[in-house]
């Protein structure tokens, strides 16, 4: 059931970097972790030693002697403070270094993707100098391996946050603001990302997938995405197209090449080419699709998509049509 | 320790003294009807006790919220609660823990302890103190009433706009949140003002600035922080957010020229100092406990005090580190990173000083001391991860993930709750006259220590593994199930430890070992009076000649006499050297603070449904004001007096 869907798409770890930016942060983390671990062990050892020393002395019945203790305490606290300062400044230096190397995008005209956050899905628009080159998809981003990709981030409703941990840190999508972030995937693969700013009922199920593939494969995919949907040839699919265009579907979803042009929900022109549906929640299988169409509120309570009461044969035709949108 | 001074040693037992005590008894006599006495009380100890108990009730309720959340997250795709309920649970958990527990419980303890620790008879502005408590109580009940009627706020304890705005949070849930914040802000602000005045103007003669106990210093620092930090969120929530929602202003609406980021700045300008407002009093608790249980003054007093002040100042320069993922100029971010890293220094210094004190002292491992040591072990982890997330690149990876959840629970449980439990064991004998059970105390400590670490340590790993905060569920394929299950088992352990604590309190307050005035052999003035203290705390007033008055050689304490006993007179001393300056008569019992709090309640609760409530509330509060300030009349013998004391009389 999971083939081509969720399995293999579970890579969402800060510590399995697949791009230069995440890799630098991963190194910074290991540096910080090692230092912190040493500091913690030393502090606890000092505390332990302090408690034991007193006990030993108590056994010997020694009295407290300020003349003995005061200068030693002063020295101890001073050295510990000095060491703390040095470590903190080292860390600050490492942080600034990493911060500087991460900021500038290392390419003049990178592939640019406009990402818009919606409650609770991602609208993905590939920018192009010519209008014919532009295309729109949702919840799945294909990028060429080894090239920096620039993301222009916007939101139309509430604040969301774009985060693909294996590739780079997060950036907020804020209504009325335009921010940008870039990253690069060094190895081909599927990387999962998830909204990281609380955005309401289905914040938990607002995921996306980044598919990094060789340039040629990416070009192939992009060329296909630019095309409008093919006219349904087999009769069931045609019937499904009818259901789509005459039912409620077309009120929210667009399919290029048909009269459905609303952008309230994800663009479905090439739905069948995607690995998941419902913003990374379900694998893109016939069964999952059927369940989602009939009762989305069961899968994502609160989602903007209403339940659809379709006759069995209509549902069947609709599924066939949607699965033909390669 | 029995050879050291207690109140019995320095109190002269002569006939005129007995007559004075009898007169004080009459002056401070509460109303005959116990309920009315309770309603009208302005005694800081009575108010402090009910404040502490109220805060713990909210702590338990908010903790139960967390328990349900942990059960829901124990398995992937769990169905114990849905997203709607879950969002209410985590919002109310955060809001209640911050606004109804962590900050006010510190206020509550300060209300009880500070007047005793500085050696005065009452808190400054006793009626205001009562008003603060009633306001807080109304606000807290309102929040949980909302939750239990399925109208609980659900936009997070940070209530980011536009999610919390009228368009994306219709209904009354967020309005309740905005008004609850207002109630708690009022309570915190009035308490801060009382504390500042009590500490600066009402200290016992001789308690110059360099003799103030470290806990009292910590309260002074946070009180100033409250005065500067709280108005920011009060303006943002009560004025701007509530007006956006209620009367359609557009402070945070980008489309109409408002700005959603304005909310974040105003909120975190309060929200970050808030963290320090919570745990600086915890540092104060630890200093008092370490001093008593090592039988040695805390090493580096001036450095300790300066550290508190530095923390208090720098805390106002960190707020943007909650906003690194928003559009912030690079230079600005660097500044906030540097400040966030360097604030670790004063905390580090204090930890080093405590370790040095333990090294040089004679530590006894009673339960309060265990909690102080547990504090060092847990809080240090939170501090270290705090330094990590000050780094912008690293923060952008773990911001809004469970790594941050782990971080701040280590800070807050370590820096607030461990010292707080320690303080409960330490001062319980003073408050009730009975000791808490040590056996149950040790069970409580170890269960809590294990529970906290088992719950929150795995969350670091979950965050690094990509699990975001504030999610009601997660897919089984993410592989987060096992760590979440472990965290849930830890939460069960925490529940058990708190249950042990409650049993201990219940049992010990009836059948605990009777404590003397000074069961721990401590050094501070609060141990110089009886347990529990009389309504007037001290008579005659102690005179302080050192930083550890009860540890003075010779075992005798000088006292100051001359305050009237036929009225509630307190001694006002100078701010720096605590030289007696004048005598001030305090007002007695009154029901007007409660009436005033009800007026505030009518105003803000009513305003959730109708803005005209402001007008109604204004009228009621005008009446309450008049009653509150109604002239008491002046006794004939007082009409020209300036009431200057000759000087502190040493015995």
Instruction: List low-confidence stretches of chain B.
Output: 1-11, 647-651
Based on helices, strands and strand pairing, what is the structural class of chain A?
alpha+beta
Of all chain pairs, the largest interface belongs to: A-B, 83 and 82 residues
Instruction: Let me know the average pLDDT of chain A.
Output: 90
The helix fraction of chain B, in percent, is 55-70%
Oligomer: heterodimer
Beta-strand content of chain A: 15-25%
Q: Based on Cα principal axes, name the global outline of chain A.
A: elongated
Number of DSSP-assigned strands of chain A: 12
Shape verdict of chain B? globular
- Could you give the distance between the termini of chain A? 19 Å
Number of helices of chain B: 19
Strand order of the largest sheet of chain A: 3-2-1-5-8
Count the DSSP helices of chain A.
Answer: 7
Radius of gyration of chain A (CA) equals 27 Å
Q: Biggest sheet of chain B, in brief?
A: 2 strands, antiparallel
Fraction of residues in β-strands of chain B: under 5%
Low-confidence stretches of chain A: 1-9
Descriptive account of the structure:
- The complex is a heterodimer of chains A (326) and B (651).
- Chain A has 326 residues and is an alpha+beta fold.
- Chain A is 39% helix and 19% strand.
- In chain A, strand 2 and strand 3 form a beta hairpin.
- In chain A, helix 1 packs antiparallel against helix 2 and helix 5 packs across helix 7.
- Chain B has 651 residues and is mainly alpha-helical.
- Chain B has 19 helices and four strands.
- In chain B, the strands form two sheets. Chain B has a two-stranded antiparallel sheet with strand order 1-2. Chain B has a two-stranded antiparallel sheet with strand order 3-4.
- In chain B, helix 5 runs parallel beside helix 7 and helix 6 runs antiparallel to helix 7.
- The relative contact order of chain B is 0.12.
- Chains A and B meet through helix 1, helix 2 and strand 7 of A and helix 5, helix 9, helix 11, helix 12 and helix 13 of B.
